[in-house]
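User: tokens in, sequence out, please.
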């Protein structure tokens, strides 16, 4: 699956949660727990199963001297352990592309599922209602809208091909530019709706957040190519009015998509 994550600074979270998050950031074992919990939660969402019984932990990203966190399986527990559950889910951005709280409409746009959120569980087993998801997943897919916001300079030194990390400001600017390009040249197609959902989702986070796009697990199934270069070339050619180049980039992307579709059926 391809994963999109947002890592926020500690001050982006409510004060009662910061102590718990700081403890997770300083716990060497937390990274391994987060990896396992995220994998289980992601597949449950893909299969339409609840993840309410999964513990809450967080992934940690250290970049440019800052410590940023991406809660896994919901929001972190309150440090006080009070376990107070909001009577009404906090306001937040509309469900983004691939968000498990969204369902696909006939036109391909994301629409809110009943309730708009999915409950989870704190370390003490106390239920809570998360205001937003920090992690989105797509199984057997290399989403064009997600790959449109990354560039080769965003590749991580340790992650290898397919893992990109970039500051939120850069991600938002690129998402807005991609959306304008698609609307101008293609109109309101499914890919345009996907790009709009991504742009709206990113707006719901702290401006000093960082964004990670991890396409490695899916890219390895199609000869290690995640398609980001073809998405970039396709958009540049679309802007320049180079129809043949657009068609060539699209065909390469479509071949990967068909390969993944075939694998998803045979697996």
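Assistant: Sequence out:
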């Amino acid at each position: 699956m391809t994963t999109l994550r947002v890592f926020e600074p500690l001050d982006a979270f409510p004060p009662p949660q910061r102590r718990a998050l700081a403890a997770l950031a300083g716990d060497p074992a937390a990274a391994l727990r987060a990896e396992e919990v995220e994998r289980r939660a992601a597949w449950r969402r893909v299969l339409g199963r609840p993840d309410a019984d999964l513990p809450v932990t967080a992934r940690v990203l250290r970049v440019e001297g800052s410590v940023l966190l991406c809660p896994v399986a919901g929001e972190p527990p309150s440090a006080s352990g009070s376990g107070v559950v909001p009577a009404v889910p906090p306001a937040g951005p509309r469900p983004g592309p691939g968000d498990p709280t969204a369902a696909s409409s006939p036109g391909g746009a994301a629409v809110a599922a009943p309730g708009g959120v999915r409950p989870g569980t704190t370390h003490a087993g106390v239920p809570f209602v998360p205001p937003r998801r920090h992690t989105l997943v797509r199984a057997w897919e290399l989403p064009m809208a997600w790959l449109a916001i990354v560039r080769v300079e965003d590749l991580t030194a340790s992650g290898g091909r397919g893992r990109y990390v970039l500051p939120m400001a850069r991600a938002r600017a690129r998402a807005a530019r991609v959306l304008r390009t698609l609307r101008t040249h293609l109109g309101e197609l499914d890919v345009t709706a996907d790009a709009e959902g991504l742009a709206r989702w990113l707006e719901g986070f702290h401006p000093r957040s960082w964004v990670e796009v991890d396409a490695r697990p899916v890219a390895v199934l199609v000869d290690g190519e995640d398609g980001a270069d073809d998405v970039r070339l396709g958009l540049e050619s679309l802007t320049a009015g180079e129809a043949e180049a657009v068609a060539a980039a699209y065909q390469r992307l479509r071949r990967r998509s068909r390969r993944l579709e075939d694998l998803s059926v045979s697996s």
